[in-house]
Amino acid sequence: MSTPNDPRHAKTGKPIDHAKLDRVVAEARKTSEERAAGYRDQALKLYAWVCGRCAREFTRDNLRELTVHHKDMNHDHNPPDGSNWELLCLYCHDNEHQKYEEHLAAQSAGRAGLRGNSKQTTHNPFEGLAALLKKDE
After folding, report:
1. How many other C-beta atoms are found inside a 10 Å radius of the C-beta of residue 49?
2. How many Cα neighbours within 13 Å face the side chain of 2?
3. pLDDT digit string, tens, across residues 2-54
4. What is the pLDDT at residue 127?
5. Contact between residue 106 and residue 113 where contact means Cβ atoms under 8 Å apart
6. What are the backbone angles phi and psi of residue 105, rounded to the nearest 5°?
């Protein structure tokens, strides 16, 4: 039985069915975990148990700290050859996602090289290097 202070759906104004919401969330989590277990097992068979960023090595004892990172950030893109995956430790994986979030934030603020909006680099640190190398020959 709902009371006047129960939360209501913003669009319909009907009381929110918390039991149904809990079931939907639980089912979504279960499906996500099953999907992740499938590509994780496959990635662990394909790749050496080493973090692709910091090169930390893993054994069965600490394998739970090695995660599968989707290079294109799409967790539904799981080609059987593993070409969209890389194994990263928890720390490097968090760092990759943080960098991606910062990139998106910069884009939305109009600062991260949006098409037609990016600045060209004018400094060439190796300018004249070929001439110097020829001079030493």
Report:
1. 14
2. 13
3. 455 677 777 788 888 888 888 988 888 877 776 666 888 899 999 999 999 99
4. 85
5. no
6. -65, -40
Taken in order 113, 106, 98, 74, the sign of the CA dihedral is negative
Tokens 């662990």 belong to residue: 44
Residue type, 110: G
92 near 52, Cβ under 8 Å?
Answer: yes
Pairs from 12-19 (Cβ < 8 Å, separation ≥ 24): none
Please give the structure tokens belonging to residue 113: 């090289």
Residues in the chain: 137
| pTM of the full structure | 0.55
One-letter amino acid for residue 100 of the chain: Y
Segments making up each domain of the chain, as ranges: 18-109
Architecture of domain 18-109: 3-Layer(aba) Sandwich (3.40)
